[in-house]
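During the second year of the project, the team shifted from modelling isolated chains to modelling whole assemblies. The rationale, set out in the original proposal, was that interfaces cannot be judged from single-chain predictions alone. As a representative example for this report, we include one of the complexes processed in the last quarter. Its constituent sequences, exactly as entered into the pipeline, are reproduced here:
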Amino acid sequence: METATMETARTDGRRGNLVAAAVLVAAGVTVFAQTAELAELDSGSDPGAAGYPRLLAGVLIALAVALAVQRGRGEAAPSRSGALRVAGAVVLVIAYALALEPLGYLTATAAFLLGAMLLIAVGRSWALLVVPVVFSLVVYLVFSTVFGIPLPRGPVEGLLP
Amino acid sequence: MSDWLAGLQLILAWQPLLLMVVGVLGGILVGAIPGLSSTMAIAILLPFTFAVDPVPGVALLLGIYTGSVYAGSIPAILLRIPGTPASAATVLDGHPMVLRGEGRQALSISLVASCVGGLVGGVLLLFFAPSLAQYALRFGPAEFFMLALFAISLIASMSEGAMVKGLLSGVLGLIIATVGTDPIGGYPRLTFGSNELLAGLGFVPVLIGIFGVAEALTRFEQRARSHDPRALSTTGSFRLSLATLRRIAPGTAYSSVIGFGVGALPGTGGDIGSFIGHNEVKRLARRSEDFGRGDPRGLAAAESANNASVPGSLAPTLVLGIPGNAPAAVLIGALTVHGLQPGPQLFSGSGDLIYSIFFALLILPVMMLVVGALGIRSWSQIVRVPTQLLWPCILALSVIGSYAVRSSVVDVLVMGGAGLLGYLMIKTGFPTAPLVIGLIVGPLAEAGFRRATIISSGSYSWMLDPLPLALLLLSVLTVTVALIRSARGRRTTLRSSE
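Output from the structure prediction step:
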């Protein structure tokens, strides 16, 4: 049983290394492609605005190839539901960021917290009500009064001092 | 000698002393909240110092700087999220101690090591500031590039067994640092057409993403099987035994000196200093395999180095007018508001002011020890929140923190992207610290590499100059030694498993 788990992790690790190497090579190639126009401006004794990142991208690709031929080591791949929860959390963060300015800080934060707490399975109903409201209010007051950092204002913030 | 006395008189008045206490308290709060950096706090409180004289004003800002660099270790230890970039190395040994049920010991060690680091750094600044700054002034672009390379090879060598992944992580950090306006020609580069990216990827959002969001995402993934309650409630005793103190003492003293030295180099600060200090103490330690797994010596090394780097970063700032790092750059701004131009002239013209700053840096660590010890129970209470409630709040704070730096939604998206990258790195066994180091030294490395080549009219012969060559050989040696060690380690593992 123990051996089977280790074997799975090793296979996952090797596959993970290959995927990582492929992604890194792609990143290196992107750097080359994105600096193509800039490279034409490079001249004279300066290694260049494009030359320097290209040098790094070359090193990155070489190291990625070295990684691809290495023996794998990594954590076991997440379960399907685990991966879905991670994706859900990322989507929530993006939605929160985009809602921050149109909805105002308080509404967006309370809604985000409610969603994130449901996602991570907070069972207590009192917490689902209290935490989003109290947390967003306290942070708002600390930021606006103590630190004087302006947070995006929406309809709810208009009711506050 | 009269400058010393005049400086002492300036600082030992009720107003500067009171403002230093307020600064340390405020700094601890700021440092303990991830996303609020020392630089940001110093910048925000800068206007308040207009109302007072230069000495109390600068004393307040130094208090915030000192307090936040110490308190950045609190979330680093308890939550694995550095409160300020200077605490990135504190995570390595601080957090595993909490997982092992020694959270209170970790908090006490960090406080004591911070105080010692600050004091050692203050004394070194007082005695060596002029000569140190002069030495750093001799460094040209070639030396800076090689120092950056050395930092990355050091940090990659820490991830033994995953050396290639560590180097890849570091190079990726260097590449991310090239996003934005090219520092020499001013061309937009790798911005994918976005105007917001012209100024580069914000360092704070990337750091919050890599260390905060990535961690939160792993918690979201492992909903069912994780949640070690010990991770969030500290246990054990705050009291440090004489044996513990004796065990951490040599590394703390050594790392304080390293932290000061690294902090004194322009462009580097507590973040790099604490990584180098941690790595150096690990290198010299007996039973060094415990480092990174909750070794008190590693925690003390990181904390003493980053606090010693505070006075260190002020050496070139005050003597040459070259900021050691971002908080020091804001401090230069605070001095110029009062009509004082940091540089050699200030040293001879306003010697009393310079010495009052030196003495403030000796008083602050002691204040920090007292304030920190009085509140040490409250700091660890901050995390007595059920984990499932905590992680959504952490994500929310990360978003707000990234947004607040520049009131930018793009920064939040950058943070989210960095968080996902960090999560994927954790899952595939890539160390994240080299990426952050690459990001920090990136601009320095690029400017150094290109300027050195321009000066040599396009030839790379500058790499063979004595000091750059020595640094290059050191980097190669660091990587080689780590590779040999990891190969030897693998052979041992294979033999023992047979």
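The longest strand of chain B covers residues 180-181. The beta strands of chain B are 180-181, 188-189.
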